[in-house]
Specification:
Strand content: 15-25%
Mean pLDDT: 94
Radius of gyration: 21 Å
Low-confidence stretches: 1-27
Domain Sulfatase N-terminal: 30-372
Shape: globular
CATH class of the largest domain: Alpha Beta
Family: Belongs to the sulfatase family.
GO molecular function, one term: arylsulfatase activity
InterPro entries: Alkaline_phosphatase_core_sf, Sulfatase, Sulfatase_CS, Sulfatase_N
Keywords: Calcium, Hydrolase, Metal-binding
Length: 499
């Protein structure tokens, strides 16, 4: 593994980006599609040992580039989505642990805050999002509204809401959050497509429209995505489509056509249906003859959830998170290392792989790099372009990245070293905190010990201090990339555990 260390904000980080930028200016701007699965681990795809067939994802890997060391910014939904879309770590916002659960959760992206969509729109793109948003919808509420209610019955669905169309997207069709969080209603642009009239429960009870069924969402999202591609392919502008799926997150509800298709039960069936959506997108690109200059990226918002019954899957030979430690919600690798593939036939070498330590927060700067946009000092403050890596997988330079658990615990990764600022998972797997007598933090050599079995904290005090100092710098500067210091939205507490 190539290892390059950066301890100061130095301009070297921008050199490779600049080279890539120049090389593309003479070419047409590509269409860009980002498909974001929900709660899916590195072992859930068949080309990495998965036991459920994922032919579309296998095709992407065969025709594109696999990022074998790619990470979400957090190990749960809402924060990892924020990092992807804004190029900024979620812990700089008011959301410093957990996720959004209710209709009363206000939009996390601030008014006027730059997003990948607004960046691309300013550079001539049509922009759309189809699927699960989960960063807060600004609903209007009835006079008798209860801020603590979670069922959605106090929302005034007849009035417009603040949706992704306020964040640079020309078009939105999707749902507020996960499929187990009310209300169960589709939203188009800034309004609900219908007024809920019944109560349904896909784990949590809540307001729903009569025709909303959780097991039909993937089919709906696939159809809307293909419609978007077909329409925009006819226009003289490139397009950006963000496709955040609801699967294989709970409820694990494959549609009737996919039941029994895998050998590992409903979870495997749901993986196969998720892969089918990817296949529908690829077919639409082929039919419109625009595959060559379309960048398609597939990734997921965090690792597999224990709700999938990981232990039972492992007994059947399927390891959702591979041999990594932990799962969704954790600071361990199983929580945030995710399958990531990029296909762009015009630029990316087929069947290639890269070991670049990549954070999905890098998507923002990558898009800016591709279209030749100059980022403002306030934008994408934690994002580093991987466009040079798309051109050459051997280009693996990346400053240290930061990961965050559901409990708000931090980890920083530099080269082979990973320092967790907690003594346990910081999430759902045990131990959640340091056991009595154990070191307060954890230091792992991920090259020698990718499963994080041996804590090297006491043996390497200098490395611990170095990474601790760098993490404090990232917090204090309000950014982790070169540039003028910025303000965080709230006070950030790095050390949350006692003892």
């Amino acid at each position: 593994m190539a290892v390059i260390y950066f301890m100061k904000f130095i301009p070297l980080l921008t050199i490779a980006s600049a080279v890539g930028l120049v090389s593309l200016r003479a070419a047409d701007k590509p269409n860009i599609i980002f498909i974001f699965a929900d709660d899916m681990g590195v072992g859930d795809v068949s080309h990495t040992t998965g036991k459920a067939a994922t032919p579309a994802l296998d095709r992407l890997a065969k025709e594109g580039m696999r990022f074998t060391d790619a990470h979400t910014t957090a190990s749960v939904c809402t924060p990892s989505r924020y990092g992807l879309i804004t190029g900024r770590y979620n812990w700089r916002t008011r959301l410093q642990k957990s996720v959004f659960f209710t209709p009363h959760d206000k939009p996390l992206i601030k008014k006027g805050e730059s997003t990948v969509a607004s960046l691309l729109k300013e550079n001539g793109y049509n922009t759309g999002v189809v699927g699960k948003w989960h960063m807060g919808i600004g609903w209007q509420f009835k006079p008798e509204s209860n801020p603590k209610s979670e069922d959605g019955w106090d929302v005034d669905y007849s009035k417009p809401a603040v949706t992704p169309t306020a964040n640079g997207f020309d078009y939105f069709y999707g749902i507020q959050a996960s499929l187990d969080m009310a209300p169960y209603v589709y939203i188009e642009n800034d309004k609900a497509v219908a007024i809920p009239t019944v109560t349904k429960a896909f784990f949590r009870k809540g307001a729903a429209t009569q025709d909303f069924e959780a097991n039909q969402c993937l089919k709906v999202f696939a159809g809307k995505s293909v419609d978007f591609i077909n329409q925009k392919a006819k226009e003289d502008k490139p397009f950006f489509l963000y496709l955040p799926l609801t699967s294989p997150h709970t409820p694990i509800v494959p549609s009737k056509a996919w039941l029994g298709k895998s050998s590992i039960g409903k979870y495997g069936d749901f993986l196969m249906e998720t892969d089918w959506v990817v296949g529908q997108v690829l077919e639409a690109l082929d039919e419109n003859k625009i595959s060559e200059n379309t960048l398609v990226i597939f990734s997921t918002d965090n690792g597999c959830s224990p709700a999938a019954k990981i232990g039972e899957l492992v007994k059947m030979g399927h390891k959702p998170n591979g041999d990594l430690r932990g799962h969704k919600a954790d600071i361990y690798e199983g929580g945030h290392r995710v399958p990531t593939i990029a296909r762009w036939p015009k630029v990316v070498k087929a069947g290639s792989k890269t070991q670049r330590i990549t954070s999905l927060v890098d998507f923002y700067a990558t898009c800016a790099d591709i279209v030749g946009a100059e980022q403002k000092v306030t934008e994408g403050v934690d994002s580093v372009s991987f466009y040079p890596t798309l051109e050459d997988p051997a280009k693996v330079d990346r400053a240290p990245i930061v990961m965050h658990s559901i409990g708000g615990m931090f980890a920083i990764r530099q080269g082979l070293w990973k320092l967790c600022f907690c003594g346990g998972s910081g999430g759902w797997s045990t131990p959640r905190k340091a056991k009595k007598g154990d070191p307060k933090w954890q230091l792992f050599d991920l090259e020698a010990d990718p499963a994080e079995t041996t804590n090297l904290y006491t043996e390497n005090p200098e490395k611990v201090e170095q990474l601790h100092a760098l993490m404090k710098q990232y917090i204090q500067q309000g950014r982790s990339t070169p540039g003028a210091a910025q303000k965080n939205d709230a006070e950030i507490v790095l050390i949350k555990e006692k003892g």
